Amino acid sequence: MKNLILISIFSLSLLTVKAQSKATSSQDTTIYTRVDVQPEYPGGFVALADYMRANIKSGSDKGMVFTAFVIERDGSVSNIKVLRSPSEAAAKEAARLVSNFPKFKPATKGGKVVRCSLLSLFVSREVFDK
């Protein structure tokens, strides 16, 4: 049985990350943390939890893995970072799962589609069974 369930904390804020340098194109490269409409996983939270249960590899380590990533304007995931993990194996598995997410419905701010940073928390079932 799959040992990981997902609790997503998409509404947590990171500090707003500004573009690394001024873009030569007219596209805004700002990564927002506060948006009018948050990015949405296709099918919502239940579908995201189903994705996790179906795709987690058996034998993942116990504990919590915190990840941060960006949902791009086209809905794809980029800039995946593991912020905290009980082990390297758990960190790699969480990063693998995030990197394979299908495209999200992107965030909007002021009526425009924007890049948005998200946090997620992956928790193994054993944490709750204690």
Overall 3D shape: globular
Helix percent band: 10-25%
For the record, the CATH class is Alpha Beta
Measured by DSSP, the beta-strand proportion falls in 25-35%
Query: CATH topology, anyone?
Result: TolA/TonB C-terminal domain
Order of helices and strands: EEHEEHEEH
Distance between the termini: 18 Å
* Rounded radius of gyration (Å): 15 Å
Structural classification: alpha+beta
Number of domains: 1
Number of H- or I-type helical stretches: 3
**In this structure, how is the largest beta sheet organized?**
6 strands, mixed
Mean pLDDT score: 77
Describe the structure.
This protein has 130 residues and is of the alpha+beta class. The protein has a single domain (4-11, 31-129), classed as TolA/TonB C-terminal domain (2-Layer Sandwich). The protein has three helices and six strands. Strands 1, 2, 3, 4, 5 and 6 form a six-stranded mixed beta sheet that branches. The radius of gyration is 15 Å and the shape is globular.
